Amino acid sequence: MKMNKLAAGALALALGLGAVAPAVAAETKSNYTGAELFLERYEKELKKVNALRDKALVAEAKIAEAEKRLDAAKARLESAKKAYMALYPSHVFVLKDEAKGKTSEELEVKDFYTPGELQRRGLQEATDELNRLYKDGKKWTADVDKQFAVKDATYESVLKDNLDYAAKLETFKAENKDVLEAAVRRYVNEGYDLYKSAKSESTRILAYQELVAAQGERLKTAKIRSKLQAKKLQEQNLSKNLKLKLKETEQQ
């Protein structure tokens, strides 16, 4: 149908989204003109497009805020990684073998040994070394630290008990008894260090907890940002479809 000048002018403004088309008169009519029918239909579609435009502006602001939160979460996580690793001497391998080659940004909580794992690792290594000196199965367990918790136990008494136990074993591989004694001493020393450090691990435990919390915050903020971006894309597609519909209306 042919549009009059009023309809054409309203259409031009509508397509530019610079203004909302003038409303058709509120009174009920049974004999609409072609231009009035066009404007009524067009006004409905235009309101939808304008509403989506407003939503897009709000979405942009929310995404910008989410980006800031994500950047802050990433910085917090990097700081937590460095702080946790700094609590251990350089010769202590805080990262697991499978984490080798990863950049700091790629590291996750699962790539770090926990304070408990790091505490017991030295004792476990000493236990394994001691067990290698015997032919028939394991004779030692990695729990010598518990011997120091017994009432009246001292370093000297625990060392003597373990040396006496080693002397009773007849399946010792090496002929040199000094090798056995050195292994026992290392075993007892590691247990003693573990026993003493267990009382002062709170700082490392808190640092590890911060590492876990920081990673959780980063994952949470990244998820929020992704949802906002997906919603924005969905609304952009809807707006695009509505604009195409407006074009079709113009051609009628």
Could you characterize what this model shows?
This protein has 252 residues and is mainly alpha-helical. It contains six helices and no strands. The chain has helices spanning 5-15, 34-86, 115-131, 155-168, 177-197, 202-251. It is rod-shaped and about 115 Å long. Residues 1-27 have low confidence and may be disordered.
Into which percentage range does the β-strand content fall? Answer: under 5%
Number of helices, counting only DSSP H or I runs of 4 residues or more: 6
Main sheet properties: none
Could you name the ranges where pLDDT drops below 50 across 5 or more consecutive residues? 1-27
What's the helix and strand layout?
Elements: H1 5-15, H2 34-86, H3 115-131, H4 155-168, H5 177-197, H6 202-251
Helix pairs in contact: 1-2, 2-6, 3-5, 4-5
Write a brief caption for the model.
The chain has helices at about 5-15, 35-85, 115-130, 155-170, 175-195, 200-250.
Which key phrases capture this entry?
6 helices; 252 residues; rod-shaped; 0% strand; disordered N terminus; 66% helix; mainly alpha
